[in-house]
Amino acid sequence: MLCGEFVSQLHWTERPVERRACASEDARARDDNQRLRRRERIRRTAVANEVLRFYGLRVQDWAGRKYILRDGKGRSALVQDLGSLWPEARKLAGRPLDPLDPALHAALLGDPTVNGG
Amino acid sequence: MTGFLGSGKTTLLSRVLSAPSLENTAVIVNEFGKVGLDHHLLRRADEKTVLLDHGCVCCTTREDLVSALLELLNEEGRGETPALDRVVVETSGLADPAPILFTVFSHPVLQHHYRVDLVIVTVDAVNGELHLDRNPESTKQVAAADVIVLTKTDVAKASVTGPLRARLRNVNPSAGIIDAPFGEVNPEELLRPAAGWSPSETRDGFSHGANGSVPFPETLAVGDEEARHTSRTHSTSLTFDGPVDWAAFGTWFSMLLHARGEDVLRVKGLLDVGEAGPVLLNGVQHVVHPPDHLEEWPDEDRQTRVVFITRGIRSEELLDSLKAFRSIIGAGPRLLEANVPT
User: Choosing among A6, A38, A82, which should be mutated to test the B contact, i.e. which has the most B CBs within 10 A?
Assistant: First the structure.
């Protein structure tokens, strides 16, 4: 989201950086914060991909405003934020994405025998 | 302000509202009760919830509250009421506070004019144990509390209030507990500013964990059928061995809420994100307060401290998950305190 753009609800995961990006008074600080905001989007995308890989999914930033989620079969979905990413990922993966799942833990810890499919 | 029927909400409210400092506080009540509330800014709203398409119970909008809160803004704008300092919403006994928070956070107008300060839960010192035993809803209310007011302590025996206090502390280590004998409570103490988290709460809530890791309670031993019972409430206080990456923590926690949100009764804490001040995290089920990046830490303790109150999710499960996410989050979890209230 950019300052002034109408989004009725900012997802809580984006709040700390967005708040600062929009609250800055001088132009230079605003530029810095916009850079920070871009960096955080890149970081969020990278982090989500580490998890989504286990489910055969991938997410990309979409014009700095949304995210595009894809599976290996050419299906995709446009999502606003992490709040809407997980439900869409569940649809594409055909199963819930649970961070408490021991199989996901094994994959994240680098166990080569684990394959989420 | 919520709490079970007969737990003394209205009595407490009528006492508190007579304080001169609360003159510009509006009150929205579910019904004009028997104890006549006499206040010039009293409004009534009949609880009316609108379920959204994804159908979870906590993410519902209270249309009655939207109307009442908008009307208060309009009256203020027209100069019909003085500038409001605060609004107290009194709920019916069974009400889940999550939809109230959701309503304020998600409404396009309300989110810019109101912020949720405190969830106050009244617990009757005489019948509190009974309510907690019989009604899962009362455990949810206690978990959602920022402040628990123990009412009727004037008539309850110390042999009853002692264990009740310990039990409330076990369910929700992050909430402050205030006694209200005869419905009397210091309004300043009740409505302490800097809501969501205060240093004294922090010290209170984490006093046991200050010296390092605490072993899991005996009741969590493998093979213990009781501990596996899915309806058990667990509270887990933890820290990290270094600053956490906010984007990564947010990814993990949003995923947890997606998968198990209805079993995450509460999360509250301060996260060290490697900057001068922490990020304040506060959520009730799926409903997360917009996290604020604080300018500075509220006290000397500058390490992350987060409490998770869960239903059926054991402390080990949370820790194992955070350990697996360690390389992504940038720091590993360390248990401060784990409780399985009986």
Answer: A82
Domain limits, chain B: 2-195, 207-339
Q: How far is A6 from chain B (nearest CA, A)?
A: 10
For residue B187, the SS3 value is helix
**ipTM for this model:** 0.88
CATH pick for B207-339 out of 3.30.1220.10, 3.90.1150.10, 3.40.190.10, 1.10.10.10: 3.30.1220.10
Q: Do the chains contact at A40 and B288, CB–CB below 8 Å?
A: no
Is residue B284 within 8 A of residue B58, CB to CB? The reply is yes
Nearest CA in chain B to A11: B290
Q: What is the band of A46 on the pLDDT scale with cuts at 50, 70, 90?
A: very high
Cβ neighbours for A84, distance < 8 A, ≥ 6 positions apart = none
**Token reading at B111:** 């989110």
Indicate the pTM of the whole model. Answer: 0.84
Min Cα distance B262 → chain A (Å) is 13
Q: Does the distance separating the beta carbons of B251 and A13 come in below 8 Å? A: yes
Question: Tell me, what's the pLDDT at B189?
Answer: 86
Query: Contact B149/B135 with Cβ under 8 angstroms?
Result: no
pLDDT of residue B57: 66
Average confidence (pLDDT) over B261-283: 92
CATH superfamily of the domain spanning B2-195: P-loop containing nucleotide triphosphate hydrolases (3.40.50.300)
Q: Please, are residues B65 and B89 in contact by the beta-carbon 8 Å criterion?
A: yes
Q: What are the boundaries of each domain within chain A?
A: 12-108
* pLDDT band at residue A28 using 50, 70 and 90 as cut-offs: confident
Residue among A12, A15, A48 minimizing CB distance to B251 = A48
